[in-house]
Amino acid sequence: MRVEVRSSEEVQLMKRAGLVVYDVLSRITDAVRPGISTRRLDQIADDCIRKAGAIPSFKGYRGYPASVCTSPNEVVVHGIPDDYRLRDGDIIGVDCGAILDGWHGDAAVTLPVGDVSDEAAELISVTRHSLAAGIRQAIEGNRLGDIGFAVQEVAESCGFSVVREYVGHGIGREMHEAPQIPNYGPPDSGKRIKNGNVFALEPMINAGDFATKVLDDGWTVVTRDGSLSAHFEHTVAVTPDGPEILTVVGETEAELVRLAAN
Ligand code: MF3
Ligand code: CO
């Protein structure tokens, strides 16, 4: 499958879509607290996307019923918003996608709810750092395997495991484009990365074993051993100036990526 190469003008259009997603996740971050339902988080996201003149890409995707995925605790990804109310000590993954002027943005965060255990806080921090390490590898001349290798190294060196069944992806006119981008595997393997490639990088990291299973609703992915799982995702363009994160504004994530150099 062909890996698309976008012009810098197209990348800037994708940045506009990315910033809609960033805005949604910022609002969700402010809203998350003990007692709020995941359905309410979905309403906030849906309102925010539509007010921006964008379309929620998840809603209706293969029959998916909501505008975000909400994945608490042992849920790895693709949790469906419902009447569950967040509790103090939970962690909650929120994944959002939007289409603006035909271009897709896709990003996810995992947030602590109130006071969380040391293990939960570390899992969140390590997963975020593993994504930063992967993003740093998204430069022309590297290979796709360099991304997964960097993610895996961060996660496993901290005693956590990398989910195998779900991977990152190309993104652009479609939410899921070629190539698939695993968060594990050998370095210096796979296709060469080129300027103009745009990737959704999304490590899912488990506190216990990496094995997962899908619940009977056909969507919710949980850890087999019931351990906690965290997920972070950014849409990232490969540019001559290095990786450009399209689903963020300001310096916070860029700082994190620089930090991952050490
Ligand atoms: N961000 C996820 C992905 O990249 C979620 C999409 S699944 C959906 O695959 F059904 F909710 F859209
Ligand atoms: Co994605």
Report on the architecture of this protein.
- By secondary structure, this protein is of the alpha+beta class.
- The protein has one domain (8-261): Creatinase/methionine aminopeptidase superfamily (Creatine Amidinohydrolase, Alpha-Beta Complex), CATH 3.90.230.
- The protein is built from five helices and 15 strands.
- The chain has helices at 8-31, 38-51, 118-136, 144-157, 252-259; strands at residues 55-56, 68-72, 75-77, 91-100, 103-112, 161-162, 168-170, 177-181, 198-201, 204-206, 212-214, 221-223, 229-231, 234-239, 242-245.
- The strands form four sheets. The chain has a five-stranded antiparallel sheet with strand order 8-7-9-14-15. Strands 1, 2, 4 and 5 form a four-stranded antiparallel sheet that branches. A three-stranded antiparallel sheet has the order 3-12-11, with no helix packed on it.
- The radius of gyration is 17 Å and the shape is globular.
- The N and C termini lie far apart (34 Å).
- The site of cobalt (II) ion has 5 residues, from loops.
Shape: globular
Total domain count? 1
Give the full name of the CATH homologous superfamily. Answer: Creatinase/methionine aminopeptidase superfamily
What is the helical fraction, as a range of percent? 25-40%
Number of helices: 5
Can you tell me the CATH topology? Creatine Amidinohydrolase
CATH architecture: Alpha-Beta Complex
